[in-house]
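During the second half of the funding period, the structural biology subgroup turned its attention to how the target accommodates small molecules. The most pressing case was 6-diazenyl-5-OXO-L-norleucine, which had performed well in the primary screen but for which no bound structure existed. We therefore specified the complex as follows and requested a full 3D prediction, including the ligand pose.
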Amino acid sequence: MPSPIQPVLDQIALDMQSRTDRGHVADYIPELARVAPSHFAISVVTAGGNVFGAGDISTGFSAQSITKVFTLAIALGRSGDQLWQRVGREPSGNAFNSIVQLENENGRPRNPFVNAGAIVTTDEVLAGRAPKQALAEIIGFVRAAAEDSDIHINEAVARSEQSLGHRNFALAHFLAAHDNLRNAPEMTLGTYFHQCAIELTTTQLARAGRFLMGGTEGPRLVSQPRVRRMNALMLTCGHYDGSGDFAFRVGLPAKSGVGGGILAIVPGVASIAVWSPGLDENGNSKLGTEALERLAREMDWSIF
Ligand code: DON
């Protein structure tokens, strides 16, 4: 019997094509503001290793905050539970780049997915290394996860964010003021901006997410207990202040990025990547979320 997944993806991509209410493309990183909002792509890799996709599945996009999942895996592999002394595990209820929360909580970020927490996580990966080495490790992890060496950092995007990343500089210096940064703020941020500028297609991202699916498909980069914990963090914190609404509507652990991508995991069943550059008010892909909501409903995929 042919899989029902492909026709469902085809229909979703077709319907999304004609939508006019596509949200707003991120413009605080000038290079991202140039991306056409008309793009839409969705890819699924199943536990059995089958790959399905529809839309612009061969066009690369900026992974941005989705890369926080990969640096978290590396940092946990390196430091284990010690990381939790530097960053919490609670949903933030605030914007991804909130400064006020970091001050109220004495420089210990709420979780590893808000920017402050991700900067601490990247700082942990960087400790004892040059930024070039740390970046080689991060891109190496993503390529290994996807089993695809054709994944790269977009220098123009990294530089574009670096030149105007004032909020992240504020966060990093505030972390340093609270003795929660091991490297110079400029070094950690340089690494963080380059990590965020990793570019991949939805096919590559869905493949890179296989290690979070559990089961036997793809390389086993992280132990099963850690996979469970990472999925718990994705469910509760992966969409920032929109995490509750995303769990309500989609019911899957997922991580978004301001490039308009979302990586979602159906534990033991599938890894899904979707991309539509227009964002909602929380900085999460508007049509990407809708597409996942439909796919989850039609495939009866939910962790609940
Ligand atoms: O630090 C930033 O603001 C960006 N490099 C990443 C933010 C992001 O992707 C938030 N996610 N929706």
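Two results from this model are relevant to the next phase. The chain has two domains: 5-62+199-218+228-299, 65-198. The chain is about 45% helix and 10% strand.
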